[in-house]
């Protein structure tokens, strides 16, 4: 399978995983991206034009993945903070009883 096709399939898989919120698949796709970039770097010597033309799309898709990951991380952090505040308030209330 050509590198260009692998890049196209990776980008489609990332978009699908992001839409589904499938973080297990996203973790696997992150590893795949690193392999693709390694293969792309190796292909620079052979000047694989179709693959090189997809590099901006790959970078843009990866940026979307990173941005969405940060949003999810921040949301989880906020939920944990709220949980901790609630837990602290519950302890304080129980001490009054």
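^ Assign residues to that structure.
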């Amino acid at each position: 399978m050509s590198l260009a096709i692998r890049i196209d399939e990776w980008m489609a898989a990332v978009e699908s995983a992001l839409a589904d919120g499938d973080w297990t698949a996203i973790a696997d796709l992150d590893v795949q991206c690193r392999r693709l970039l390694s293969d792309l770097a190796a292909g620079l010597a052979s000047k694989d034009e179709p693959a090189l033309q997809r590099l901006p799309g790959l970078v843009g898709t990866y940026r979307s993945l990173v941005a969405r990951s940060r949003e999810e991380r921040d949301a989880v952090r906020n939920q944990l903070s709220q949980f901790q505040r609630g837990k602290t308030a519950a302890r304080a209330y129980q001490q009054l009883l």
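The two ends are 69 Å apart (CA to CA).
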